[in-house]
Each structure stands twice: as C-alpha cells, then as structure tokens.
Specification:
Number of domains: 2
Radius of gyration: 33 Å
Number of helices: 17
Distance between the termini: 62 Å
CATH topology of the largest domain: Rhopdopsin 7-helix transmembrane proteins
Helix content: 55-70%
Number of strands: 3
CATH architecture of the largest domain: Up-down Bundle
Order of helices and strands: HHHHHEEHHHEHHHHHHHHH
Shape: elongated
C-alpha cells in the first residue's frame, strides 16, 4: 500500500480507538479497553512504518540517531497491538478473564519483544531508502531473518486466537446486522492472516540477501487492502452506527448549548453566583461533555430566573404594548406561542436591568404576584426544555420590542436605595 493509503488507514484506526475509548462507559470495559489499545497501537505503528515516514527517518543519522530506530519502534507498537488483540480474544471467550491469564500474555509479549530486540541489535541494520539492510555477515542476515520471523509467528498466534472467537460469536449470533458484521470481521482476520503469512517471503529474503523490503509487492498490497476493507465494513456494520448516533447526539447537545449562550452570558454577568462550577477549559473550546454542560446551563438559567422574580417590574406589560405598536411583529411571530415568548423575554430583560442597576429586591414579589409564576410547565425532557430556552434566547437577543423594553427599564431603574414600585409582575416562565 502507498504511504497516503497507510496514513488513511492509520486515521481510521485512530478514530476507531477514540470511539472505543468513549464506549468504555456503556460497553463491557475489558472489551472496549483492549479494542481501544489495539486500534490505537495499530494507528501509531502504521504512521511510523509508512514508507514516507521511514524515508524521512533516514535523515536522523545527522542528529546521531540510528535511522532504523523508527522501524524498530513501529514494529514494537505492532507487536503491542497484537498482544491487545490476543487479550481481546481472551475476554471474548471469558468476560472475567483471570489476571493470571493477562499476566501470562504480558510475559509472552515481553519475551517476544526481548528476543526481537536482541536480534535487531545483532543484525545492526541500516536504512536504504525504506528497506532494512543488515550487516554483510551471515550471522547478521540470520538475525534479521529471525527478527522478522518472530514478528510473523507472534502475529499469526494472536490473529488466530481472535479469529476463533469471532467465528464462534458469528455462528451463535441471530440473523441480522450483528451477525453480518461479525462475519465480515472474521473474513478480515482471514485476510489479515494471509497478509501476515506473506511475511515469510521477507524472512527468506532477509536470510538470503540481508534485506527486508519496506515497500510491499502487489499481492501483499492487495491482501492488505482486502483486510482493511473488510475490517472497515465489519466495524461499520456493528460499531460505527452507534458511533454515528453518539456523534450526532454530541453535535445536537453542543448546538443547543451554544444557542443558550447570549441569555446565559447576560444572566451570569449580573448574577455570577448562578454558576455551579468555574469553567475548567478555555472559553473557545467546546465542552468535553456537552450533554452535561447543557444540563448545567439550563439549571443555571432557571436559578437566575428565580432570583430575578424579586426584580420584576409592573410597568413591563405597558412598555411591551407600546414597543409592540412601534415594532409590530411579523406574521411568523404573531401567534400565541410567539407572543408568550416575547412577553417572557421582555419581563426577563426588564428584571435583569433592575438587578444590574442594584435596585433593592422585593422579597414579597413571588407571593404577591401570581403572574410571576411560570405560565407553562417545564419541558418533559432535557431536549424540549433546551429548545424552549433556545427560542426564548433568540427572542431575547433579536426582538426589537424586547430591546425597547430593556432600554426603558434601564432608564427607569431606581437606585439601590430607592423603593421598588408596586409588585404586580409580568409573566416569567
């Protein structure tokens, strides 16, 4: 496969690792953990072993670094991914995989890496373009061949273990998308075993000529593409639909979270105590969990509205009537829902101006003004309540009648020591 194709495959594995890492909250933790390890290590290995990366590493000798070191690191990451695949096969067979079995596999991994490191040092390879070249002695050629053979055998062992478990699960699965996906993943492992078996050619070449080709021949490239295509299709059938739904949910929650920003920002400026926790990120960065951030922002807005009930101005309906006659609403804003949202936004804007001016709150307002109570019940779920507040925010930020009411409330706001007007409030939901 070409360098650009390998980089694309590495990106696919990196995205899969990100999805498995997020899925650890809902999926069995061991399966998600080892899937994440395997895909992340494969992504890093492909980035290091891609021919453009290896060719760029040939310049490292100017810095006193062995040019073949990136190849050793890439092979080590690939062997680590194979170990994660073997552990994944173990937890698919036994979800409560004993620690003894995990330690046994880690000990085998350490042994394989140790043997390969010794053989790599004995071969003392250099780089010729993207090819590994051993020292001219016969011992160095055999060491390079042994280094390659150890990797081929260990990968075959790990892939075979996972193939057996996926084949068992595919036979037991009911007809449907899951069984189709498991069969595609099984076929991808068969192609992967064939792709890995073609590495025997590299062993023979290393023993005969002391060279391990970095670029793959045509048949090896076809097997690699077949393996990746089947793997991507299998994951797309079994894993990525859930990932797509998760991404769509993240985007919807983030969009609603941003839609509430104008109203929340004004409320927080006047009433900073509504913030449940200080922000632990840069303001321009999206929240890590937008669903939770949206939930918290809704609570903070409702807390602010409860506080502002003590600042409701009885003149707001009169101001709004005059502003509406001056700025008549469009046909789209003339229905009862739009009028209620405009009245609610105007009452909120006027109360916010009074609070910003430091007017003395009237603690009797919620008791003496029944209209201050919410005219509508809260939404049945988070999404509907977020949509209502987003609509209220748009009216608050864009309606010229609300802006006129706000300007009048700012001009008429009393000083902190002045008495409040008679507490007959306008509707705030």
């Amino acid at each position: 496969m070409s360098g650009l194709v390998l980089y694309g495959v590495a990106l696919f594995f990196a995205l899969s690792a990100w999805h498995f890492a997020r899925g650890r909250r809902t999926n069995p933790r061991a399966i998600a953990r080892y899937s994440c390890y395997a895909t992340a290590l494969l992504a890093a290995a492909l980035l290091l072993l891609a021919p453009p990366t290896v060719q760029a590493a040939d310049r490292l000798h100017r810095l006193g670094i062995a040019p073949a070191l990136p190849v050793l690191l890439g092979d080590t990451l690939r062997i680590g991914a194979a170990c994660a695949i073997r552990l994944l096969a173990g937890v698919l067979r036994d979800p409560e995989l004993p620690r003894r079995a995990v330690r046994r596999q880690l000990a085998l991994l350490a042994g394989v890496l140790g043997v390969r490191a010794v053989l790599f040092v004995a071969a003392a390879p250099g780089l010729d373009a993207s090819d590994l070249t051993a020292a001219p002695s016969a011992g160095a050629r055999l060491a390079l061949a042994g280094y390659t053979a150890a990797g081929v055998l260990y990968l075959a062992y790990c892939l075979t273990a996972l193939l057996r478990q996926l084949a068992r699960l595919a036979r037991a699965a009911a007809p449907g998308r899951q069984r189709s996906g498991l069969r595609l993943l099984t076929l991808s492992l068969v192609a992967g075993l064939l792709w890995n078996a073609w590495g025997v050619d590299d062993v023979v070449q290393a023993a005969a000529t002391g060279t391990q080709a970095g670029a793959e021949d045509a048949l090896c490239g076809v097997l690699g593409l077949l393996c990746v295509a089947l793997l991507a299709t299998g994951l797309g059938t079994t894993v990525w639909p859930a990932a797509h739904a998760a991404v769509r949910g993240w985007l919807r929650a983030h969009r609603r979270y941003r839609a509430l920003a104008p109203l929340w920002r004004d409320l927080h400026t006047v009433l900073p105590e509504i913030a449940l926790a200080p922000a632990s990120r840069l303001p321009l960065l999206p929240p890590r969990d937008p669903q939770f951030a949206l939930y918290r922002r809704i609570i903070e807005i409702h807390d602010a509205r409860l506080i502002l009930r003590q600042h409701l101005d009885p003149r707001t309906p009169r101001w709004l009537a005059a502003a509406t006659s001056r700025f008549p609403p469009s046909a789209a804003r003339a229905d009862a829902t739009a009028k209620a949202a405009t009245a609610e936004a105007a009452a909120l804007a006027a109360a916010l101006e009074r609070a910003a001016a430091g007017a003395r709150p009237n603690p009797d307002t919620p008791r003496t003004a029944p209209a201050a109570e919410p005219p509508h019940a809260l939404g049945p779920d988070l999404e509907s309540e977020a949509d209502h507040l987003a609509h209220l925010t748009r009216v608050y930020a864009t309606c010229p009648a609300v802006a006129e009411v706000r300007a009048r409330a700012r001009a008429a706001a009393p000083s902190p020591s002045a008495p409040d007007p008679d507490p007959v409030a306008s509707p705030v939901r």
